[in-house]
């Protein structure tokens, strides 16, 4: 099955179970101070779970565009380096609002994966919430017993609070979840080492595909849990991961969701995917990021200097930087990937076709401008290298690296990379001190993203305390309560 067919079969399956198919909400969230980007299919149903809105149907399903680059869900560091975390991805989901519960959710998930898609049952695992002393909760025996109908006990794995208990925030709806994992390793490897102990251990071929959340509690302001009068189901399955499993691939980037884009990157840059680790990582980063940028532009979010726009700009720059450093791209090239992106996703997302010209123009302009910045930074750095070497020093002042970062948008890891080629290093401690000092200087006001949502209370004022520096040169806005 190709990707479009897989997506379609998911919707048709849940339609046959009386679900209403709804559209994806925008990926860039406007008018919600507590959330910058949609990070899960259930975001658009938040008000239903909180009891503030009635659902259009007690059962819905869809494919949702998600972005995980900020707040509680930030996968950016992984993207490109592994083969199954994206910044933007599609989440297939089905929901019950006070309607069906664990039994149906589990049996339909199983039916869809094994009967409809015919995935190999012997490669599947389920995880269930093992209970938690501190929370005074027992193991989720209900879920365990339903899974026992389909899986031997040794393939039903206990999961802790981190992986198997979902909470919206400090307060509000929450509950245990049950995840489905798949072992994609070769037969002989499976024979050597069973998969159970590899579940949830970041193994690239034993991966989580579907999360079934059973919303049965409400966490009160005092921290106590109470049973909800109505129980809900919220599920999310990684579409690109499902495509990988279905198409017998070992990487999301080898599925038809990504191959047209990767092929085009190879053509444009005259490099080969598979040539070296560095080239592979760079190509994956670019293939991933170009989707994110194109989709955020179609959502009306252009790269800019603040908030969501700034996050998007940093993602674009991350891709340019990988292209520059590992694929020798000295000129704008990402904008050339649009036709390939449209080829892979245009039929499901016609907005890509409608806005092709705008997307192309914006990406090219951003690339050109960042490349100019890089060129300035690099020529400055050349002078610094020369001076440092002349003085017979080995260490470049952190202050200089910070100035390159702060004034020229020149990321620390790129500075370090160039210095390393010249046998030099940066004084990182000094760099961090400068960064800290800058944090203290910056001031602004919006909301924080540490949970799926943050409930802003009355008189709950937050003060901007600056940007958090991460290796990837993406910044996370930080706030503290005042
Ligand atoms: P993981 O443990 O792999 O990071 P998760 O537990 O954070 O995944 P959930 O929040 O449970 O993910 O989201 C539901 C599903 O969405 C996951 O089972 C997975 O298939 C998919 N998914 C999550 N994060 C990503 C991502 N960054 N890129 C692609 N798919 C993802
Ligand atoms: Mg995750
Ligand atoms: Mg997980
Ligand atoms: Mg999960």
From TrEMBL:
<keyword id="KW-0479">Metal-binding</keyword>
<keyword id="KW-0547">Nucleotide-binding</keyword>
<dbReference type="GO" id="GO:0000049">
    <property type="term" value="F:tRNA binding"/>
</dbReference>
<dbReference type="GO" id="GO:0002161">
    <property type="term" value="F:aminoacyl-tRNA deacylase activity"/>
</dbReference>
<keyword id="KW-0820">tRNA-binding</keyword>
<keyword id="KW-0436">Ligase</keyword>
<keyword id="KW-0067">ATP-binding</keyword>
<dbReference type="GO" id="GO:0004813">
    <property type="term" value="F:alanine-tRNA ligase activity"/>
</dbReference>
<keyword id="KW-0030">Aminoacyl-tRNA synthetase</keyword>
<dbReference type="GO" id="GO:0005737">
    <property type="term" value="C:cytoplasm"/>
</dbReference>
<dbReference type="GO" id="GO:0008270">
    <property type="term" value="F:zinc ion binding"/>
</dbReference>
<comment type="function">
    <text>Catalyzes the attachment of alanine to tRNA(Ala) in a two-step reaction: alanine is first activated by ATP to form Ala-AMP and then transferred to the acceptor end of tRNA(Ala). Also edits incorrectly charged Ser-tRNA(Ala) and Gly-tRNA(Ala) via its editing domain.</text>
</comment>
<dbReference type="GO" id="GO:0006419">
    <property type="term" value="P:alanyl-tRNA aminoacylation"/>
</dbReference>
<keyword id="KW-0862">Zinc</keyword>
<feature type="domain" description="Alanyl-transfer RNA synthetases family profile">
    <location>
        <begin position="1"/>
        <end position="482"/>
    </location>
</feature>
<dbReference type="GO" id="GO:0005524">
    <property type="term" value="F:ATP binding"/>
</dbReference>
<keyword id="KW-0694">RNA-binding</keyword>
<keyword id="KW-0648">Protein biosynthesis</keyword>
<comment type="similarity">
    <text>Belongs to the class-II aminoacyl-tRNA synthetase family.</text>
</comment>
<protein>
    <recommendedName>
        <fullName>Alanine--tRNA ligase</fullName>
        <ecNumber>6.1.1.7</ecNumber>
    </recommendedName>
</protein>
<keyword id="KW-0963">Cytoplasm</keyword>
């Amino acid at each position: 099955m190709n990707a479009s067919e897989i997506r379609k079969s998911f919707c048709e399956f849940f339609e046959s179970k009386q679900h209403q198919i709804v559209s994806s909400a925008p990926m860039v969230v406007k008018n919600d101070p507590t959330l910058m980007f949609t990070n899960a299919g259930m975001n658009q149903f938040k008000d239903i779970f909180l009891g503030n809105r009635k659902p259009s149907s007690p059962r819905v399903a869809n494919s949702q565009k998600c972005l995980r680059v900020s707040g509680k869900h930030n996968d950016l560091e992984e993207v490109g380096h592994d083969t199954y975390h994206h910044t933007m991805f599609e989440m297939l989901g089905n929901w019950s609002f006070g309607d069906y519960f664990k039994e149906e959710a589990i049996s339909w998930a199983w039916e869809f994966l094994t009967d409809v898609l015919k995935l190999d049952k012997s490669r599947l695992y389920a995880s269930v919430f093992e209970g938690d002393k501190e929370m005074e909760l027992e193991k989720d025996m209900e879920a365990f017993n339903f899974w026992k109908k389909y899986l031997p006990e040794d393939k039903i794995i206990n999961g802790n609070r981190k992986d198997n208990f979902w909470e919206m925030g400090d307060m509000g709806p929450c509950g245990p979840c049950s995840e489905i994992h798949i072992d994609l390793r070769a037969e002989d490897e499976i024979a050597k080492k069973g998969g159970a102990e590899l579940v949830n251990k970041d193994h690239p071929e034993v991966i989580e595909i579907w999360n079934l959340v059973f919303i049965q509690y409400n966490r009160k302001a005092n921290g106590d849990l109470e049973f909800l009068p109505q129980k809900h189901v919220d599920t999310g399955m990684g579409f690109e991961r499902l495509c990988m499993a279905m198409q017998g691939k070992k990487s999301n980037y080898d599925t038809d969701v990504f191959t047209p884009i990767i092929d085009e990157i190879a053509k444009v840059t005259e490099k080969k995917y598979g040539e070296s680790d560095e080239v592979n990582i760079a190509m994956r980063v670019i293939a991933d990021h170009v989707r994110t940028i194109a989709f955020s532009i179609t959502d009306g979010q252009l790269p800019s200097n603040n908030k969501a726009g700034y996050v998007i700009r940093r993602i674009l720059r991350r891709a340019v930087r990988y292209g520059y450093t590992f694929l020798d791209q000295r000129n704008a090239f990402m904008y050339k990937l649009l036709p390939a992106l449209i080829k892979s996703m245009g039929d499901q997302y016609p907005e890509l076709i409608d806005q092709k010209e705008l997307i192309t123009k914006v990406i090219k302009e951003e690339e050109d401008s960042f490349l100019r910045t890089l060129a300035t930074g690099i020529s400055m750095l050349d002078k610094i290298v020369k001076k440092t070497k002349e003085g017979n020093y080995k260490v470049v002042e952190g202050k200089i690296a910070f100035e390159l970062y702060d004034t020229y948008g020149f990321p620390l890891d790129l500075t370090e990379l160039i210095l390393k080629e010249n046998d030099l290093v940066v004084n990182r401690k000094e760099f961090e001190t400068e960064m800290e000092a800058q944090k203290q200087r910056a001031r602004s006001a919006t909301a924080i993203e540490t949970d799926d949502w943050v409930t802003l209370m009355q008189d709950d004022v937050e003060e901007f305390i600056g940007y958090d520096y991460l290796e990837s040169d993406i910044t996370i806005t930080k706030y503290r309560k005042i």
